[in-house]
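Worked example 2:
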Amino acid sequence: MDVSVTLYVLNLIGGVVFAVSGALAAGRKKLDWVGVIVLAFVTSVGGGTIRDVLLNRESVFWIKDHWYLWVTVFAAIGTIIYVRFFKPPHKSLLVADALGLALFTIVGAQIAEEHNVAPVIVVVMAVLTGTAGGVLRDVFTGEIPIIFRSSETLYSVASLAGVSLYLGLQYIGLDKTVAALAGVTCVAGLRFAAIFWHIRLPAFHIRNQ
């Protein structure tokens, strides 16, 4: 599959699953339908928007291609309809968030590569793309962002590991599409493993004086 087509498909799928995670978070806060759609949209496009602004791209991705906007809205409405008749699977928000994290991490890396930036900037943009939407979602719902919670299992570390694997596989000559799929699998696999086995980073505590 052509690299540009792969990038586009991954971006759309990532937008859908992050929109679902935003809609589910809105449902848990009992927001109205407008709140659900807005939160789904912010979660879906937040990371990519910040990335595009920092990279000084010609146009923010969802403004240039309005299909991202419609996909987000349809995903939010679809989530509303689904939970109206069915109970969401246990930990569905974590699953949707993990998939969005994996897809957007690699999409962010590939877009950064198009701008011929240094590898460390590719890593930063990849992690930012994967995590910023979730941060905005949590801030909008009055929660400590998942990326910062000491009680939360590995999140940004999974993103960092996935993009590092993606770049490393390309460095040794592996096909870019294969490297991308491996990176996505790495991020999602680490995130799911962390959730299942409760793997987290140690908390930082300051003793009371």
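The first helix runs from residue 3 to 28. The chain has a mean pLDDT of 91.
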